[in-house]
Design a protein that fits this description.
Distance between the termini: 55 Å
Helix content: over 70%
Order of helices and strands: HHHHHHHHHH
Number of strands: 0
Structural class: mainly alpha
Number of helices: 10
Radius of gyration: 22 Å
Strand content: under 5%
Shape: globular
């Protein structure tokens, strides 16, 4: 219970510091290319306005007609789910989509900060989970505290960049792989698939996917190896039980 209380304290301090810093220094942080233009454009889609080019997205902003028709939740959902159309960049990165959604209910500057605070919390929670699985609760607290105090992690939460979201989802995937126990627990395997799907649509494009793949190939291979070992051990145990059963019949 003490470790969980420590984790909650770390999360609270990190989020409050992040949001207070955003209030005290409201100047727009460094943006990933045209992300600051895309967020209001996707807000207009949510309001129903029709884009001049449905291929809009990263590196490809567009004009909007004055009529509020042709856009809406359906088009937004299509871009959120499909968002690549054979190109090397992501049409609607999920951090931008979440920021546009949050801006429907919160002030725009606070919406972006809140979304990236969520990615920061996901990173800290996943690191805590990894530490607990590998070395116990104390190691988990140390891992979360180390990341919360690391300048690059806290700093990138201020930037409208893909770096922190990609790192956060990579960390979450590693934690979920550990929880799957060699891909033998289907619920955790399903969670791995869903988070990996979001990861493929979180960065700007192919380069971010290559980086994420290089990070995850080791943990994924090790998890598959553990799963193979477990299956082999289960098969061996079944064979031993069959031999005992036949000897008993004899």
């Amino acid at each position: 219970m003490d470790s969980r209380r420590s984790l909650l304290t770390i999360l609270a301090v990190a989020c409050i510091s992040h949001l207070v810093y955003g209030v005290c220094y409201p100047a727009p942080p460094h943006s990933s290319h045209d992300a600051f233009l895309l967020i209001p454009q996707f807000q207009k889609i949510l309001l129903g306005y029709a884009p001049g080019d449905t291929g809009l997205g990263t590196f490809h902003p567009t004009w909007f007609s004055g009529e509020s028709s042709g856009g809406g939740w359906r088009l937004f959902g299509e871009l959120f789910l499909e968002n690549n159309r054979g190109r090397h960049w992501t049409q609607l990165p999920h951090p931008i989509a979440l920021s546009a959604l949050a801006a429907r209910f919160l002030p725009s500057w606070f919406a972006v900060q809140a979304v990236f605070a969520g990615y920061l919390c996901a990173t800290l929670l996943a690191l805590y989970g990894i530490g607990c699985r590998l070395g116990g609760e104390r190691v988990g607290v140390i891992a979360a505290l180390s990341a919360a105090g690391f300048p690059a992690v806290f700093g990138f939460a201020r930037y409208l960049e893909c770096h922190l979201p990609v790192a956060a989802l990579c960390t979450v995937v590693v934690w979920l792989l550990l929880r799957s126990e060699g891909l033998t627990r289907w619920r955790w395997c399903l969670a791995v698939s869903l988070v990996t799907w979001s990861l493929t649509r979180t960065g700007e494009g192919a380069a971010d996917l290559v980086g994420a793949g290089l990070v995850l190939v080791g943990p994924a291979a090790w998890t598959a190896y553990l799963g193979g070992q477990a299956a082999w051990s289960a098969e061996a145990d079944r064979a031993r039980r069959m031999r005992v059963w036949f000897i008993g019949l004899a």
